[in-house]
């Protein structure tokens, strides 16, 4: 319960239905999926039924969107912990249809949508950063802009651009990548996040890192 109170305090500036998504993202990045089920139970009880379903849907989408940032193995483990912890009525109400299908995937519109978000997040630095990455590896910038930004991050049907950038902050803090964290902290502000929301996302992730380290230390002591 102390862990949940710590996260509730950190998340005070975030709307209740989005808190689980941010925390679950940080827990996936910190490789601590065992921390997710108590949060699912807590926020499912704290929210009305429709809000509980919405919270899990937002968390599922956050994990999908952060797939390339966090890595598939950790996202899969976090997704299993998230959905398996939801009670029967919540699981029954979750969407069962894939949103990103071959029927809707068209390369050029997807790439243009990705470029739009790329420019929105990086602003005046967008072209310079694109050229730098392309010089390192042309395939890398292509995949980032088309698949990551185009197909994943800029799809706002469930999570809007502001919430997505807050999730990026939660994913990047445990990964300890200061340059990318700085960019997405500024990107979150450009996408409409308030200073309090940006600070809350970072605080959630920092609290998760602390909790994950405690669990790791206990496991090490017991081994």
UniProtKB/TrEMBL annotation:
GO terms, molecular function: peroxiredoxin activity
Domain Carboxymuconolactone decarboxylase-like stretches: 158-219
Coiled coil: none
PANTHER family: CONSERVED MITOCHONDRIAL PROTEIN-RELATED, PEROXISOMAL PROTEIN 2
Record-given protein name: Carboxymuconolactone decarboxylase-like domain-containing protein
Source lineage: Eukaryota, Fungi, Fungi incertae sedis, Zoopagomycota, Kickxellomycotina
